[in-house]
Amino acid sequence: MTTKTLKIGYYALLREQRGLSEETVETAATTPEELYTTLKSEHGFSLEANQLKVVINDAFKAWDTPLQPNDNVVFIPPVAGG
Amino acid sequence: MFSISDSALDPQALRDSVRNVAAGGFVAFEGWVRNHNEGKTVARLEYEAYEAVAVSEGNAILADAMERFGLREAKCVHRVGTLELEDMAVWVGVSAAHRGEAFDACRFIIDSVKHRLPIWKKEHYTDGDSGWVNCEHCAHAGLALDHANHHHGTSSAAMPQPTPGPSQEGNSGPAVGENVALAVPNDTPVASTTIHADTCETPLLGGAGGGLNSSNAPITQAGYYARQIHLKEIGQTGQDKLRQARVFVVGAGGLGSPALQYLAAAGIGHLAICEADTLEASNLHRQTLFDAPGVGQPKALLAAERLRALNPFINVVTLTDRITRANAVDLVGNYDVLVDCTDNFETKFLLNDVAVLHKKLLIQSSIYQYEGQLFVYDPHHDGPCVRCLWPEMPKPGCVGSCAEVGVLGAIPGVFGSLQAMEVLKHLLDLPDKLQGDTFFMDLLSLRSYKAKAERNGNCPVCGDSPTITAIVAEDPVELDAADLNGDWSGYAVIDIRDEEEAEGEPVPITFAAHHPANDIRVDALDIDLPEPWLLVCSRGMRSKYLAMALRKAGHEQVYSLRGGTRELVSAK
After folding, report:
1. Nearest to B177 by CA among B103, B89, B73
2. How much is the pLDDT for B182?
3. Residue B133's closest CA among B141, B145, B142, B124?
C-alpha cells in the first residue's frame, strides 16, 4: 500500500482535543473522509466527519476529494463564540 | 423571603420584618400603580402570577442578593388581583451593615424581579379598553428553568422582559422607603423596545457647553474625521458614504464591543445595536465597551450612551428585544449591512437567511478560545452564503460556547475589529474585500489563512432551487378558540387551573386531564397523554408561560389557549 505525506491542521475544538494545531502525517488514506476516520479513532475526536468541513490547499472541498501527496488538509468544526 | 399577596401591602409591617440589630442601613423600593402608560390613561390594573414559579424564582433572587451583597435581611412582596391607582404593586426592602450594599441590593432585586418573574399586568384604560402589558415578552419564557444561561451573550435562551412595578417606567416618580429615599434617576435606562434616535449635527461646543470637551475649540466633523479623510482612498466622498450608511450590529458583546466602537468612530451615519442582555461582571474582561459600574444594566443602552459620547455626529438606535424569526425582517428592514457579533448558531443562521433573502451584506465572525474566523456574504457577488458550507445548523452544544470553554478577551477584540474593517472596506469599496473566502487566524501561532468556497447550487437558501424562501416564525404557542371552532379533538386539552378555580364557573370544554400549574414540574413531568397538548388556565397567562417552558424542555407540540377559560365563557 502506498502512503503519502500530508500536512494536517486542526482548528478550534479539534485543536483542543488533538493538543496541537498542525502536524505532518504519513497516511494511506485516499480521501479526507478516510483520513479523518483514522485520526478520529487515533485521537478520540468527539465530532463526526459530517459535523465538520475540510479545507484542502486553502479551499473547502468535498469529503471524497482524492488526496495528493503533500496536500495541506485542515479540519474545521463549526464555531459560534462571540 | 418572597411572597405573593392578594391584599393591600402594609409598608410599616414590611419594614419591621427586615429590622436587624446588625443592620446600619435600610433601603426600600415601592412600585405604585400610575395613571398612564404609553400615552393611555390607566384606570386600574390587574396582576396575575404563575405563583409556584414566581415564589421559587423570587426566593432564588433574594438568596442570590443576600449572598452577593452580604445582606442582613431581604424581603419582597408582589401583589396580584385588582389594584387601583396609587396602590402599591410591589415592595422590596433590604437591610445591610452599610448603605452601599443596601442601595445596590434593592436595585438588583427589583430589576431581577421585573426580568425574571412570571407575573403579568393587565391595564384597564379610562377609554374602556384594556391590555396585558409585556405578555409577549413573558412568552419568551423558559426562563425559570434556565436562568443560569440566559444572560450570556445573545444565546438562544431568550430572556424575558420585565413585569413592571408601575413606577419603574415613566414619570410617576421614584418610590420612597420608610427610612432612606431610593432615588431612581430620570435617565435610568429602561429595558424596552424603545428606539432612541439622537442626532447631533451641530459641533460640540468647547468648555462647559460640550461637556466632554475640555478645550476651548469646538469639535467639528471635519476635525473629527481628519485623519481618515486624509487617506486618498477615502476623502470627503468616502466620508459621505459612511455618513449615509445604515449598519445593524447584532450582539454588543466581545465582538460587538470593538466592532461598534470602530464603526461609530468611523462615522457610520446610522448604527443600530441589537442586544437583549444586561451587563454581567464576567463580560467585562472582553467587552471593553462597558464599565464595571454598569453591571446589571441593559447592554444596548449602555453601549448607545458610550457610542453617542464617542461620536456625537451619528445616529445610534438601540433594540433591546432579542432578534428572532418573528421580528428579524422588520428589525433589519431599513439597514443595508448586518454585522453578526452573536455567539450562537441559531442567530447566525437566522442572520444568514435574512441576508440572502433580503439582500443585505453580512459580516460574520465567530471565535473559539484563541482562534477566530471571519466570513462575508455579499448579495451582489456570486459567492457562497453560510448555508452553502453548512446547509443544516450545527446542533447547539456540539462545540463549546465562550462560557463553557473560556476565551481570552483580546481574541474577540481582534475579530470584532476585523469585522469593522470589512464593513468599511465594503462600504468604501476598498481593494481586497473579503468575498466568498473564510478567513481563519490562530492568535497563538499567529498563523492565518483564507479558505475559498464556491456558491453551492444545492444550498437550501441561495441555491438553484431553495427550500428556505422566507423567514417563517416558529409554530405559534397560542391558539385561539375561534380558530378551533369548537373542535378540540386534535389536542389533549389539559386544565392547569388550581382546584378552587376549576370548581368555579362551568366552561364549555371537556378536559382530558387536570394538572394544576403549581404542581407541574417541567423536569419531572407526570402527564401521561400523547402530544399535542393544549394547556388551559383562567386567562391564558400561566398556560402560555408553561407551554413555552415545556417547549424549551423539548416538548414541541404544546400549546396554550389564548385568553383561557374566561375568554371561552365570555364568548359563549
Report:
1. B103
2. 28
3. B124
SS3 of B534, please?
A: strand
Cα–Cα dist B59/A43, whole Å: 46
Chain B residues whose beta carbon lies within 8 Å of the beta carbon of residue A78: 345, 390, 394, 398-399
- Using DSSP bridges, classify how beta strands B130-133 and B119-125 pair: parallel, antiparallel or unpaired: antiparallel
CB-CB contact of B397 with B360 (8 Å): no
With an 8 Å Cβ cutoff, is A56 touching chain B?
no
Q: Which residues contact B548 (CB under 8 A, 6 or more apart)?
A: B139, B140, B141, B142, B477
Q: How many angstroms separate the CA atoms of B324 and B442, rounded?
A: 31
**Are the beta carbons of A58 and B451 separated by less than 8 Å?**
yes
Q: Is the confidence at residue B487, as pLDDT, over 90? A: no
ipTM over 0.85: no
Q: What is the mean pLDDT of chain B?
A: 82
Please report residues of B whose CB lies closer than 8 A to that of A76: 440, 451
Look up cell 422607603; give the residue.
Answer: B177
User: How many angstroms away from the CA of B94 is the closest CA of chain A?
Assistant: 37
pTM of the complete model beyond 0.90? no
pLDDT score, position A81: 84
Cβ <8 Å between A82 and B400: no
Give the pLDDT of residue B148. 31
Average pLDDT over residues B416-420: 98
Provide the grid cell at B442: 490562530
Q: Could you tell me the CA-to-CA distances from A72 to A50, A55, A69, B525 in Å, in that order?
A: 20, 8, 9, 52
Nearest CA of chain A to the CA of B154: how many Å?
Answer: 9
Contact of B160 with chain A, judged by CB distance below 8 Å, is answered with: no
Average pLDDT estimate for A58-63: 92
Determine the distance in angstroms separating the CA of B161 from the nearest CA of chain A, rounded to an integer: 23
User: How far is Cα of residue B524 from the mean position of the Cα atoms in its chain?
Assistant: 28
CA distance B430 to B194: 35
The answer to whether the beta carbons of residues A3 and A70 sit under 8 Å apart is: no
Grid cell listed for B179: 427610612
**Is A25 within 8 Å of chain B by CB?**
no
Which residue is listed with cell 371561552? B568
- Residue owning grid cell 467639528: B220
Is residue B445 within 8 angstroms of chain A, CB to CB?
Answer: yes
Separation between Cα atoms, residue B168 and residue B175, nearest integer Å: 9
B412 inside 8 A of chain A by CB: yes
| Option in A60, A78, A80 nearest B451 (CB) | A60
What is the model's pLDDT at position B275?
Answer: 95
Residue B460, helix vs strand vs coil = coil
Q: Which residues contact A10 (CB under 8 A, 6 or more apart)?
A: A17, A18, A20, A21, A22, A74, A75
pLDDT tens for each residue of B257-309: 999 999 999 999 999 999 999 999 999 999 999 999 999 999 999 999 999 99
Confidence bin at B400 (pLDDT 50/70/90): low
Which of left, alpha, beta for B245 (phi over 0: left; psi -120 to 50: alpha)? beta
Name the residue among B227, B331, B358, B315 with its Cα closest to residue B274. Answer: B331
Contact with chain B for residue A44, Cβ under 8 A: no
Instruction: Yes or no: say if B555 and B526 are a contact pair by the CB < 8 Å rule.
Output: no
Q: Which of B240, B208, B135, B59 is nearest to B542 (CA)?
A: B135
